[in-house]
Design brief:
alpha/beta, 180 residues, 24% strand, 40% helix
Length: 180
């Protein structure tokens, strides 16, 4: 089974205001090949951009039946899948455990269609880790990453994941800048 890594990020300038600009970025990585994509929209939220980054990454895959590892700094996205929130939402008619409508249902529904098409694992990454700063405690970040995501990653792989996460963030900012 072919392994594809997806690194995604979304952001919003002026989040929760009437006038704001959102951006999303994603990197699709297969072996030594990489594809970078980004975009944005006006009057959106950070969470919508996080979701749109992942949807766009899946939409750029040209075949089904892939083994996919998703890396994101969005707890909103990662926890939904790791904790199976989406299963309860669908079962409860798109209502949360607090009996409220699920926010961003339109995007969640678009995203869920990809789950049965692939074998997907989700991994949470700490965002905005500055690998060039002498003050960054890489061992501490690596230990926390492994604690959250399991022992299946070497420190070298972790550094690559952080670099790709930072690139996805830069692409999301490029998406925001395209509207300025």
């Amino acid at each position: 089974m072919k392994l594809v890594n997806l690194y995604t990020d979304g952001g919003c300038s002026g989040n929760q205001h009437n006038e704001n600009i959102g951006g999303w970025g994603a990197i699709l990585e297969y072996g030594q090949s990489q594809k970078e994509i980004f975009g944005g929209e006006i009057n959106t939220t950070n969470n919508r951009m996080e979701l749109f980054a992942l949807i766009s990454a899946f939409e750029n895959l040209n075949k089904d039946g892939l083994q996919i590892r998703v890396f994101s700094d969005s707890s909103y996205v990662i926890n939904c899948f790791k904790e199976k929130w989406h299963v309860s939402w669908v079962k409860n008619g798109w209502r949360t455990s607090a009996k409220k409508d699920v926010e961003n249902r339109d995007l969640w529904e678009r995203l869920l269609v990809f789950l049965p098409k692939h074998q997907i694992s989700f991994f949470h990454v700490k965002g905005h880790v500055n690998l060039n700063s002498k003050n960054t405690n890489l061992d501490k970040h690596y230990d926390k990453f492994v604690e959250s995501n399991g022992l299946g990653f070497t420190k070298e792989e972790f550094v690559h994941i952080i670099k790709m996460n930072n690139l996805a963030d830069a692409l999301a900012n490029k998406g925001i800048d395209s509207f300025r």
